[in-house]
Write a structure and sequence with these properties.
- The structure is a homodimer.
- By secondary structure, chain A is an alpha/beta fold.
- Chain A has three domains: 139 residues, NAD(P)-binding Rossmann-like Domain (Rossmann fold, 3-Layer(aba) Sandwich); 143 residues, Rossmann fold; 168 residues, Succinyl-CoA synthetase domains (Rossmann fold), CATH 3.40.50.261.
- Chain A is 41% helix and 17% strand.
- Chain A has 16 helices and 20 strands.
- In chain A, strands 14, 15, 16, 17, 18, 19 and 20 form a seven-stranded mixed sheet that branches. Chain A has a six-stranded mixed sheet with strand order 8-10-9-11-12-13, with helices on both faces.
- The longest helix of chain A is centred in the C-terminal third of the chain and has 19 residues.
- Chain A is elongated.
- Chain A starts with a helix and ends in a 5-residue tail after the last helix.
- At the A-B interface, helix 5, helix 8, helix 11 and helix 16 of A face helix 5, helix 8, helix 11 and helix 16 of B.
């Protein structure tokens, strides 16, 4: 990626002075929540609410206009009625022409090309015509803008603080990405690095953001919600390049003609033919999820677990039926095979498990039955993870009667951490009881171990990891 | 169904005297938990723990043997080492021959035909040879047995009390069904009527249970987890008959050859060819889910919502992206079309919603944008549900900034309940924020309104309801 392009996006994520045009003193208004959430996100730079009617908002001094702000401004957030946005852009332009300090604008306001009207389109064009030629990058309009959990920059009126992690999100639907983050929050399923809600994507676009995040050390996986783009070829080329470094997990909306109409009414984007996307994306190494839940858990797993170094998966289960469902899903993909456990592994397992346990029928499947202790869970898991024939493990467990959730979590974590980081394999744990065992799940997630409620979804996630790993390995240096 | 067969199963669900052979005074043992859970389930009949070493267990007087019990026994639960089960069966037989009072036995113990050994198979045969000819029906072995939330009968060592509802479960994996119930519990997603974990299905089987539950007024939907059966033809015929009265939602394990091996090792059942099942099940009106989560939410929705009286669905959304994903999934099925809203509906909506709202692009899709009040949510929902062209609604919502979760829930419920019960249509609500808005979800679920985190799963559930309704309508009297 060109240095200038990268630099121009730096202002979005790393600005130290943020002005909010349309900041409001009234709780519940987006113009209030943005100020509140910027503070909640731990932003330590300067916050400049622009509001002629208030003295201060949440302790930040208000300014009647942009020109009254004496400090340096990097980023301007516009949360104004659509009718006022072009005039606001002119104010930004005047300041840029004078002080030269604004590098980016997030236009939260809606009422532009997504309306499908001439007025909406011409308003959007007017906005860009004022800002872009001056080197001011525009995110939106009709968006939630950016979040960076490390710098604390946050223009999102829905989410304030969020736990840090390696996942960055690029989305053409703010609501979709916010739903993901809120869904994941109680279970601590995801840690966030950067978030960009693109809205109408009038200037800053998917392609350059992918390039930017590929070079971002704090991003280990990119989750992409895509409705459509006019940059099809550039997107695929960039995606193929980025996928050599880190995974892109994508969900494509507008698969059907009728769905495309809904997408167009939403962000004014052209959905394109889904079949086209599907084929070329997969060739480009992009992990294309088939459902929302597969997208959620796949992105989370990539952020937490190492890649498998092969396609031989072991299914280790305490629960017969769910184990069977997991095996079904795994092998039906064709991308994964069940691991051929070594004789050493099998005899070590036999020494621990009860005679009724099933070791290797079918090959690579172990049903321990629930009759064993926390410490035996640890031993069994260590043996299985340590078998060189195993590239990854799906572990279906549940706290048996009166087994302590915390003790079980600690033993699972201890088994995993008994391996040196470079020897670790992906371990996906199916906790079928879901949020009825919150301590088990929370403790495991905090230790970086993905927990999934559904055995078949865990299988899909593992298949995605195996497929991506195979793509990436073609480009790794040897 | 024959009266004698039905009567013989009555003893399972409605027994008033339950003896537990293998009852234990030691907390954590299954033989203890069964006594505990029977009490927790509110069973008001007589509980007879058989235990020679203890005076009493959890306040229930212990008996040295079955013959020492003077009161009437309907059901015996065996939770003994496998080696002791045949001898225990003989004790049951002696009592039956003398007093004639035992009508059913639940054999929780494992160590029978599922082992795949001659010893296991002959032990199972010996058990049946003693009991079945005497008219004692056997559930199991290798199972969790039965629960009935109305009678309080409960032989499940994993679950005690559970909220009542119209869902009954027949399962060849106890762990699978327990996972479902525990998964659903914190969100109050499901209410249970009857539960039967069949284990090795040596005597009481899927076919007769389907017939029994078809006639059970407290069962409105049957959820079936199936690994395999030798009664293929009878199963399909019975399912087709039962489906004329109430829905059967099924999940089939052992879809792949390798998965079948796992299933066989688990309950000794023959998985059969999945393609065969799929085609004939669908023809028999059975709702065959393709994933665990689809199974979970479909069964819950049938238990809570009326059937659609057509296939015209309206997608009403506050959230653009998730709304698009929902539309994609709905229309790609071919079974559902988006509803043609009347002009009256459209003009009424226009009067309430902001100009930027999308009413009918595509037809049947309404994106309100998040900018409206709780009361407006209620009005919009009433208008859409009241349109005669609409057979059902998927409603994607979320509490906007500082909107009160409870107030939103009350308004949604009020809109729904403004219609007389016979005029109600299925309403599936997508709460994308999941358990981060527990009050909203819990309140809605308590009022009988299904909430689903994922827009595409909600679409699949609606498709299942539409398809089943079409099947059933062919047999309804006019």
């Amino acid at each position: 990626m060109e240095t200038t392009a990268r630099k121009s996006l730096d202002g979005l994520f790393n600005g130290r002075g943020v002005a909010i045009m349309g900041a409001s003193a009234k709780k519940g208004k987006p113009g209030h929540s943005i100020v509140e959430n910027l503070r909640a996100a731990g932003f330590t730079g300067n916050v400049y609410p622009v509001n002629a009617a208030s003295e201060s908002i949440l302790g930040f001094q208000c300014y009647r206009s942009l020109e009254k702000i004496t400090g340096r401004i990097d980023l301007v957030v516009m949360v104004l009625p659509a009718d006022d946005c072009v005039e606001a852009a002119r104010a930004i332009a005047r300041r840029k022409d004078g002080k030269g300090d604004i590098s980016a604008a997030v236009v939260v306001s809606a009422g532009f090309s997504e309306l499908g009207t001439d007025q909406g389109r011409s308003r959007e064009k007017a906005l860009l015509d004022v800002l872009v030629p001056r080197g001011i990058r525009v995110v939106g309009p009709n968006c939630l803008g950016v979040m960076d959990t490390y710098s604390g920059v946050n223009t999102n009126f829905d989410i304030g603080a969020y736990r840090r992690g390696g996942l960055s999100i690029i989305t053409q639907s703010g609501a979709f990405a916010v739903s993901y983050l809120k869904w994941a929050e109680p279970g601590r399923l995801v840690g966030l690095s950067k978030f960009v809600s693109l809205g109408n994507m009038s200037d800053v676009n998917v392609v350059e953001l992918l390039g930017y995040l590929a070079d971002d050390d704090r991003t280990s996986v990119i989750a992409l919600y895509l409705e459509g783009t006019r940059q099809g070829r550039a997107l695929v080329e960039t995606a193929a390049h980025v996928s050599r470094k880190k995974p892109i997990v994508a969900l494509k909306a507008g698969k059907t003609r009728i769905g495309s109409v809904a997408a167009a009414s939403h962000t004014g984007s052209l959905a394109g033919r889904f079949e086209m996307y599907q084929g070329v994306f997969r060739q480009a190494g992009v992990v294309l999820a088939e459902s929302v839940i597969e997208f959620y858990y796949t992105a989370a797993a990539f952020a937490k677990m190492p890649l498998p170094r092969g396609n031989s998966i072991c299914v280790l289960t305490v629960l017969g039926g769910p184990g069977t469902l997991c095996v079904d899903e795994l092998v039906s993909s064709g991308a994964v095979r069940l691991a051929r456990l070594s004789e050493k592994t099998k005899s070590e397992l036999r020494a621990i498990l009860i005679p009724a346990a099933n070791i290797g029928k079918p090959e690579g499947f172990i049903d321990t039955t629930p009759s064993f202790t926390e410490a035996q869970h640890r031993e069994v898991l260590k043996i299985v993870l340590g078998d060189p024939a195993v590239s990854g493990v799906i572990y279906l467990t549940t706290p048996p009667l009166f087994m302590d959730e915390d003790a079980l979590a600690e033993n699972i974590i201890a088994a995993y951490e008994s391996f040196a980081p470079e020897e670790r394999k992906p371990l996906l744990s199916v906790i079928g009881f879901g949020s009825s065992v919150p301590r088990l799940r929370n403790r495991m997630e905090e230790a970086g171990m993905p927990t999934i409620e559904y055995p078949d979804i865990a299988a899909k996630v593992m298949i995605n990891m195996v497929r991506y790993s195979r793509y990436k390995s073609r480009f790794d240096e040897h």
